[in-house]
Amino acid sequence: MISVAARLAGLPCWVLRVLDQEGIVVPVRTDSNRRLYSDNDIALLGRVRDLTEPPLSVNIAGVKVILEMERAHARELADAREREQALRRQWEETQAALEAALAARGGHGENGNGGGAAAHAAAASAVPRAALPPYRPLMPPDAEGDP
Fold first, then answer.
1. Does a structural domain hold residue 38?
2. Over the stretch 34-44, which tens digit does the pLDDT of each residue have?
3. Which range has the top average pLDDT, 48-57, 100-109, 128-137?
4. What is the pLDDT of residues 103-118, one digit of tens each?
């Protein structure tokens, strides 16, 4: 009910009606057209209260923009986390494939006995020289022209 939600959020009932009309906080409606506010709605109303009270004193249009920006940021953050997890899985699969390739060449991986350096050298020699980029020093040449 709107009066209970208003009391919980610390806002007057008319503000909840305006927020509903503006599409900022849209509660579920019953068959008899009463507003039912969820816990998420109450939390969002609290955020609206924080934005509209001093020292911020943001108007309803500003609240709408701020909340949309926060939602967009949350979506972007979730997308970035998904991409990070996908890249992490890809890296782990690549690492496992490399370790399997090293083991197949006679090495025993990093922690195994007797194949570490030899297996690494064998894996390095498997890369054709033509595929490697030309060497470029990281440091600029000194004043005498030596690289």
1. yes
2. 999 999 999 99
3. 48-57
4. 888 765 455 555 556 6
Domain membership flag for residue 70: no
pTM of the model: 0.62
Could you tell me the two tokens for 139? 């440091």
Tally of helices (H runs) and strands (E runs) in the chain: 5, 2
Q: What is the CATH number of the domain that holds 33?
A: 1.10.1660.10
What is the DSSP code string of 12-45? -HHHHHHHHHTTSS--EE-TT--EE--HHHHHHH
Give the domain extent around 50.
2-58
As for how many domains the chain has, the answer is: 1
Residue 12 lies in a domain: yes
Mean pLDDT over each residue of the chain, to the nearest integer: 85
Residues of 45-72 as b/e, b for ≥16 C-beta within 10 angstroms?
Answer: beebeebbeeeeeeebeebbeebeeeee
